[in-house]
Design brief:
Layout: H1 22-49, H2 81-95, H3 97-106, H4 108-111, H5 120-147, H6 157-189, H7 192-195, H8 225-243, H9 245-248, E1 294-298, E2 301-305, H10 307-312, E3 316-320, E4 333-339, H11 340-346, E5 356-360, E6 369-372, H12 374-378, E7 383-388, E8 391-392, E9 402-404, E10 417-422
Helix pairs in contact: 1-2, 1-3, 1-6, 2-8, 3-8, 5-6
Bound molecules: ligand MTE and molybdenum atom.
Molybdenum atom binds at residues 275, 324-326, 410-411.
Length: 426
C-alpha cells in the first residue's frame, strides 16, 4: 500500500464519499426535525391513553416519576382518534427509518472522530451524541421489534421504549437547538431544485467547512445527490406502502406485507384481525362453556349472571374499531351487548358510575386485567359486547363477552371477561 499522500490530513480517512457535507446532512436533519416530534407526541398520547395513573394494573412504567407530569384523562371522543394517532406513530416511525439511517451515514466521520475527546466541552458534546445516536437507534429498534411481534429484548417493551425515548428526546432537543442555525445556513447554501437536476457526472463535493463533514480526500462520485435522496425517498415510500394498510384496514390490509400476517382471522362477521387467540392464552372451550359466569361487584354488592341472563338485559349497539398499540387497527365493527353503565346500575351505581376493574378468564400473561376510567364507563357506546357484526363473538374475539370502549387502545378491550368490579382500580 502506498503511504497517504494528501495535504492537510495525516492519514487516509475511510469516509470518502463526495456527497457528504453539511447540506446533505441538513436535508435529512430537517426531515427528522419535522418527523421525530410527531413520533414523540403521538407516543406520549399513547401512554396517556393507557390511563397509567389510574391503576397499577395499567401502568407498565411505575417508576416514571416526573415523566408522567402531562398525563390526562384520555377522552372517548372521537372514537377513531387512537386509531389515527397510533397508526401515525407506528407508520411514520417505520417510514423514517431510511431517513434516520441516511442521516447517520452522512455524519459517520464525526461519530468516529479522533481523538474521541479533546476537552471537557468536547467530551460533553460527544456524550450527548452518544445519547442521541444510541437512544435513537434503541427507541426505533424496540418499536420495530414490538410491532413485528418478535420482541427479543430482555425486559418489557413498555419501560424500555418509554425511557429510551425520553433519553433520545432530551438529546434530540439539545442537538436540534445547537445545530439549528447551522442547518438553516447549510440549506440556504445550495438550491434543492438545482441539486435534483444534477447528474453524477456534474456532482462535486461541497466546499470544505468547519463542520468536518466534507471529506478532505473525496473519492470520485458514483451517485448524485439526486440519486441518494431518491434512494432514501424510495425506501421510505416502499415502507409506507407495505405498512400503512394495517392501520387503514379493509382490502388494503393485504398490502401490509411487513405487518404481522400470522393471525389470519378468516371470513364472516368475526373475520377481522385477532391479537392473541384463545388457544394462545390457554383459554379452553370449557372455560367459555355453560359454567361461565359474569360477576358484577360494586361496593359490598355482588351479583352473578349466566350468559342467558346477560342476554336478557337491554342490548345496545355501537360501531367501533379495535386499534392496537402495535399500529394495526380495524375499521368500525358493529358490536352489540350491555352498556357498562347499565351493569354498574345493577350493583347500585346507577347515576354517575365510577371506573371499573375488568378481569378476564385468562390466567397468565399480560392484558388479562385492566382498569377503565369513569368517563369510559359512562360513555353509552362502552359495552360488554356479546355479538359482533350480527353474530356471536368467536372464541378468538373474546366469547362469551368482551369489553369494547370508544377511542381506547386495543389492550383495554379485554376479551373473555368474567368479572367487573365497579369503583375498584386493582
Ligand atoms: N384477555 C385478554 N384480552 C385482550 C388481550 C389479551 O391478550 N388478553 N389483548 C388485547 C389487545 S393488545 C388487543 S389489540 C385486543 C385485540 O382484540 P381482537 O383480538 O379481538 O382483535 O384485545 C385485547 N384484549
Ligand atoms: Mo394490542
Amino acid at each position: 500500500m502506498s503511504p497517504p499522500s494528501h495535504p492537510g490530513s495525516g492519514r487516509r480517512t475511510p469516509w470518502r464519499s463526495p456527497l457528504r457535507g453539511p447540506w446533505l446532512t441538513s436535508v435529512f436533519g430537517l426531515l427528522l426535525l419535522v418527523g421525530i416530534p410527531v413520533l414523540f407526541v403521538t407516543g406520549l398520547l399513547s401512554y396517556a391513553a393507557y390511563n397509567p395513573d389510574l391503576s397499577p394494573v395499567n401502568d407498565k412504567t411505575p417508576d416514571k416519576g416526573l415523566l408522567g407530569f402531562y398525563l390526562f384523562s384520555w377522552p372517548t371522543n372521537p372514537s377513531w382518534l387512537y386509531r389515527v394517532t397510533q397508526g401515525v406513530h407506528v407508520t411514520l416511525g417505520i417510514v423514517l427509518i431510511p431517513v434516520l439511517l441516511a442521516k447517520l451515514w452522512s455524519v459517520v466521520p464525526k461519530l468516529f472522530e479522533r481523538p474521541p475527546v479533546r476537552s471537557l466541552a468536547h467530551g460533553l458534546e460527544r456524550l450527548s451524541l452518544l445519547a442521541l445516536v444510541g437512544g435513537g437507534l434503541f427507541t426505533f429498534a424496540t418499536g420495530v421489534l414490538n410491532v413485528q411481534l418478535n420482541y427479543i429484548f430482555p425486559g418489557s417493551f413498555y419501560p424500555l421504549h418509554f425511557y429510551g425515548s425520553w433519553v433520545f428526546m432530551a438529546a434530540f432537543v439539545l442537538h436540534a437547538v445547537l445545530r439549528f442555525p447551522r442547518m438553516v445556513r447549510s440549506l440556504k447554501g445550495r438550491d434543492l431544485r438545482a441539486e435534483l437536476r444534477t447528474p453524477v457526472s456534474r456532482t462535486t463535493p461541497e466546499p470544505p467547512d468547519e463542520t468536518g463533514l466534507v471529506s478532505p480526500d473525496p473519492a470520485p462520485p458514483t451517485i448524485s445527490r439526486r440519486g441518494a435522496l431518491g434512494m432514501v425517498g424510495a425506501g421510505s415510500a416502499a415502507l409506507l406502502v407495505v405498512t400503512a394498510g394495517q392501520s387503514i384496514g379493509g382490502p388494503l390490509r393485504e398490502t401490509a406485507l411487513l405487518a404481522p400476517h400470522n393471525r389470519e382471522p378468516g371470513r364472516g362477521p368475526n373475520g377481522f384481525q385477532i391479537n392473541k387467540t384463545a388457544a394462545a392464552v390457554g383459554i379452553t372451550a370449557r372455560d367459555m362453556g355453560a359454567d361461565w359466569r359474569l360477576v358484577l361487584r360494586g361496593g359490598d354488592r355482588e351479583l352473578t349472571l349466566t350468559r342467558q341472563e346477560v342476554l336478557r338485559l337491554p342490548q345496545h349497539g355501537a360501531a367501533l374499531p379495535i386499534a392496537c398499540v402495535e399500529g394495526w387497527s380495524t375499521p368500525d365493527q358493529r358490536w352489540e351487548g350491555v352498556r357498562l353503565a347499565d351493569l354498574a346500575a345493577l350493583v347500585g351505581l346507577g347515576s354517575q358510575p365510577p371506573g371499573v376493574l375488568v378481569e378476564s378468564l385468562q390466567q397468565h400473561g399480560s392484558f388479562r386485567t385492566v382498569a377503565l376510567r369513569d368517563n369510559q364507563v359512562r360513555d353509552p357506546r362502552s359495552l360488554l359486547a356479546l355479538k359482533v357484526n350480527g353474530a356471536e363473538l368467536s372464541p378468538d374475539h373474546g366469547y362469551p363477552a368482551r369489553i369494547i370502549v370508544p377511542n381506547a387502545p386495543g389492550v383495554q378491550n379485554t376479551k373473555w371477561v368474567t368479572r367487573l368490579s365497579f369503583g375498584e382500580t386493582g
